[in-house]
Each structure stands twice: as structure tokens, then as C-alpha cells.
Amino acid sequence: MQEIELKEKKVNNAVFQFLFPFSILEGKEDDTVTKLKENGYEWFRLDKVEKEDDYYGQFEIDHEDLENYYLPFTNRILFPKIEDGKGFQRYTKALGKKSSFIAPSYSADFVIHSVDIFICPYQIGLLNVRVDLLNAEDLTYSQILDFGAKFRVMEEIHSTTTIECDNQSFEHVQDYIFECVIPDIKGYMSHKSEKNAYFESFPFFEDNRLYVQALISLDDELTEEDVYRLGNLDGFFNDKPYISAHNKEFVHAFIQERAYMRWAPYTYILPDSSGFFILTKQTGPEFSRIANSFYGEFYYGLILTLFHKIVLLKLENNYSEIRIEQDTKEVEKLIHAINAFSSNYFFFELATHSEGKDIFVKLRDRFRVELLYEDTRNTLESLYQYQDNFTTKQSSSLLQILTLYSVITGIFGMNLMVDNLDENINWTEALGSLNFYEYFALFVIISGVIISVFLSIRYIAVWYMDKQERKKWRKQIEYPNTK
């Protein structure tokens, strides 16, 4: 077994995107959008080609190439043509905010070029912060990996780092993002489980971690150990390069299984459950081309896959909280949510390009999307079976009641009373002359009429309430920004 030896390497470029999923307060999608627009956020459209180089620092994305990269039904969700249509509504603001990340052994100067807010179906929001390290050439590869590992932790218990921005100092990334970078969104985030922890709005999700998208260019030959370290954000320990493995065979097997090596040994792509990582030795125009895909095609593929994972986990979590014998309306709502997700938002094929298909298959595999989807489909079958049994039982009980009333009315009411209905009836005398059986028959007739009227009114009320509920569900699921 061969041990791993590491050496420090010089970095040419290092850019990051940090993704933060959150839950939007119910019914506050429109208010969230209004607030974002008031604070300078613009709705993102592919036909605004003048914005191709506004949000990405020295790089740009080609909107036409971005549209052609995905299949038409995927484009309808990723790039909706109307602002109040279903899909991912992206709002972006250029910032150019410079800050410094102060660690015990190094200082990383960075700029936040722009911030994206996605208003998605199922009351899900996605926040993305674009970070470009300004002094990457002065930092070692280990220090940059350490920066990525520490920046993705929203709140460290024993923080040893600070972020300085606009004459303010923040010990936690959470405070920096929601107080300095984007204070606009905090009031519209749902905090169901823990008032002071933003990730607790998804109690079933990975807590206290941002998803990372990283693109790093090294001024040296790339090794499998370098790729492994990026995929795990292994920085340094005791001021020495660190790797969370001890033998080359394990690292080799890890890379062979998970990395996309079409452009190796010049470029490695590693889609993983903690993020999306690209390590390259390319510079100049070639690096710019990779950055174009990094900010464009790969970014949207990660967004869509992350959305799939969150929705599937949310549906599973909702199923676990249902009291199935009591929450019949919640069962119906969950069935509607699963069917809407399957028909509108879940696609096995995303991209038109072969490399895109291969990369996104690996990403979905690392996110366990297919397994979660199978669990959700099994949940749907269980719910259908329960609803069918419940409806059958309810219909049977109602039929028994109506049948019983019909039989009794026929025996007592029609035979004993109906002959008097064609005469002028003195009700005082008629009621006073009835015997016990005739009183019983009269009670059955009157109660039967009352129950029939009640059931009719109840049916109309339930139909109207169901119609209103379904409109509400459709707005939450299919039309996140309906005016």
C-alpha cells in the first residue's frame, strides 16, 4: 500500500459560488419579489444579451449557448419567458462588494460580484453568492481549499476566522451574508423549527452547510490527490497540506468512480453531494471557456438537481408527519404535490450535449435523486391505496345509511301516511290521532328530508372548499409568482 505525499501548489485563479436553500413563508412569494425589486434586483431573462457580462466579474456567459444546452421542456422550467409563469424565477443584483476573510495563518481578499435569488415552486428559495478570490496567486492551494471549507459553514461553534466588510467584522458567515450582503431576504424566510437558525427551515436537510461550486486553476500538473482534496475541501493541518485519505489506491478508486475525466489530465470535473468542483490547469481563453460553463450550464444543472433533492426530501418529510387516519385533506394535498412534481419538474434527461448528460447523471447519483424519487413513487402508491380504501369505506357507510332510511320510509312512511297527502289535512288533528308507529314513520320521513338537505349543502360546501384549496395548491406548486 503506497502512502500519499503532498506538495504545495500555486494557484492561478479561484472562483466560488455558494448556494443556500431556504423555505419561503407561505403566500409571501410575491412580497419577496417586490422587496427584491425595490432593492435593485432584476428579473433574469435569456433575451437580455446585454447582461451576459454584468454579473460574473471578468467572465461572461453566452445566453444562446445556455438555452441550446438544455432540452426544450427543461428550458421552460429553468428560463421561463414570463415573470408570473411556473418555473425558476431568478432575480440578480450586481454588487462588487469587496471583503477580507481573516484566518489565523492567512488572509484571503475576495469580491462578491453578484447575488442570485431563485423563487421556485413548492415555496423553495435558492440564494447564490458569487465569490472571486482577488489574491489567489498569493495563496497556496491548501489555503484556498481551507477558505472554501470554512466559508461554507454558516455558523461555527468555536470560530477562529472573521470576515471584514465595510468597517464591520463578522465571526460567522451567516451573519455576514444576512446582515451585510443581502439583508433583503431574511424577513421572508420560514423558520419553523429553530428561530435563529436559517437552515432549520428545512429540518430534514443538511444543516449549517452551504453548497459549493468551485473552479480552481493550478499552475502545475494535476494529480488525483489534487482532485480528491478539492472534492472534499481538504485544506491543511498544522500548516501542512491535508488529505482525508491514506493510500493512493483509495484515492484512485474514488476518482475513477466519481470524477468526469473527459478532458483529463488538463481538467477534472467532480460532481459531488457537497457541491460541484472543477480543477484545471488551463489558462487564458481556455479557462474563460470553462468559466462560461461554470457560471452557465453547470450552474443551472446543479440548481435543478438541488431543487429535485430538496422537493423529494420535503415530500418524504411531509409524509412522515401525516396522521393518515385524521389528516385526509393533507393526504390529498400530498398526492397532488407528488403528481405535480412528477409531471412538471422531474426530468431524467436534462441536456442536449453528451458531456452534460454524463455529468448530470453523476451529479444525480451523488445526490441520490433516483432513489429518493423511487421512495416518493412508493409513497404515492401507498397514499392512493389508503385514499381508495377510505373513499370506499366512506361511500359504503353513506350508502348503508341512505338504504336504511329508504327501507324504513318505504315500510312505515309511504304505506301509512301517503294516502292522506291528497286531502286537506288538519295537522293538529292528524298529529294528535297518530299512534306510535305513525309517529316513528313521520320522524323517519322528516329526518330523512333534513339529512338529504344537509348532505346536499355539505356536498356543495366541500366542492367549493376543494376548488379553493386546489387553487391555493396550484399557486404554491405550479405558479410561484402568480399575481
Account of the 3D structure:
The radius of gyration is 31 Å and the shape is elongated. The strands form two sheets. Strands 1, 2, 3, 4, 5, 6, 7, 8, 11 and 12 form a ten-stranded mixed sheet that branches. It has a two-stranded antiparallel sheet with strand order 9-10. It starts with 10 loop residues before the first strand and ends in a 6-residue tail after the last helix. It has helices at 29-38, 63-69, 72-78, 141-151, 173-181, 224-232, 248-258, 284-295, 297-321, 328-344, 354-367, 369-417, 427-432, 436-477; strands spanning 11-23, 42-43, 89-102, 107-120, 124-133, 162-165, 168-170, 211-218, 236-237, 240-241, 267-272, 275-280. It has a domain at 11-310. It contains 14 helices and twelve strands. Helix 10 packs across helix 12 (369-417) and helix 12 (369-417) packs antiparallel against helix 14 (436-477). The protein has 483 residues and is α+β, with helices and mostly antiparallel strands.
The description of the largest β-sheet is: 10 strands, mixed
**Number of helical segments with 4 or more residues:** 14
CA distance, first residue to last residue: 64 Å
* Number of separate strands: 12
Molecular shape: elongated
Unreliable segments (pLDDT under 50, ≥5 consecutive)? Answer: none
Radius of gyration over C-alpha positions, nearest whole angstrom: 31 Å
Strand content: 15-25%
The ordered string of helix (H) and strand (E) elements is EHEHHEEEHEEHEHEEHEEHHHHHHH
